[in-house]
Amino acid sequence: MIKWVLSCLLCMVGVASAAELPTTGGAKASDPRAVIAAKFPGVKPEEIKPAPIPGMYEVAMGADTAYVSADGKYLINGDLYQIDTRTNLTENNRSEVRRKAIAKLDERDMIIFAPTAAPKYTVTIFTDVECAYCRKLHSEMAEINKLGVRVRYMAYPRAGPNTDDWHKMESVWCSKDRKSAITHAKLGEDVKAPDCGTTPIGKQYALGEKLGVNGTPAVFTDNGDYIGGYLPAQKLFEQLEALDNQKVAAAAKK
Length: 254
Known about the structure:
Layout: H1 2-12, E1 20-22, E2 28-30, H2 32-37, E3 49-50, E4 56-61, E5 64-69, E6 75-76, E7 81-82, E8 87-88, H3 89-103, E9 111-113, E10 121-127, H4 132-139, H5 141-146, E11 149-155, H6 164-174, H7 178-186, H8 201-210, E12 218-221, E13 226-228, H9 233-253
Parallel strand pairs: 10-11
Antiparallel strand pairs: 1-2, 3-4, 4-5, 5-6, 7-8, 9-11, 10-12, 12-13
Helix pairs in contact: 6-7
């Protein structure tokens, strides 16, 4: 979030401020959304919405949310809580952005390990073949599946583009048997595969950046919850169960 805020502030330097929209009466009045959008390249006025705090607006970039004053002069970086309910409103926004992004994913671009019976939960995991904790999680895949958890792997080579790590993951995704290939790669073995042209690695890595992945493995639920890093199989299941119960309880209160 800090990196995103700093980049936005740099982009705002030298950008003209107040954009004005005509009112129905023919006179002109400053629209706060237009004023704010003018300072954030790539953000459209209609994408900006009023924040729960009077006089503030929410600006979403990826899964992050910043709170900006109506005059576009001040920006608050941090999570916003509703005190009475102790609800993290900013995290709710992040979860919704992540939920929508995850729902649009094409499973044909993933590597999926599923239980034999109908799964109780599905998680989408951004993984790296060089990551020690990714390897540890993968070594427990049989137990994870046995508990009823379906795992969908997405590529997130932490070293970045044009690195050995990146090329290893391209070889995995170019393999005829991706499940076998990623298992061998996570054991530290070389994976040989013919060049298959453009792979999903770039898009998946970019999505991980957008969703705020800050390490691997990065575990996400279908509801957009970011569980974080490695958990032992049983702990992972318990965390998914707890999140599910929280959703049910929250829905019952509405």
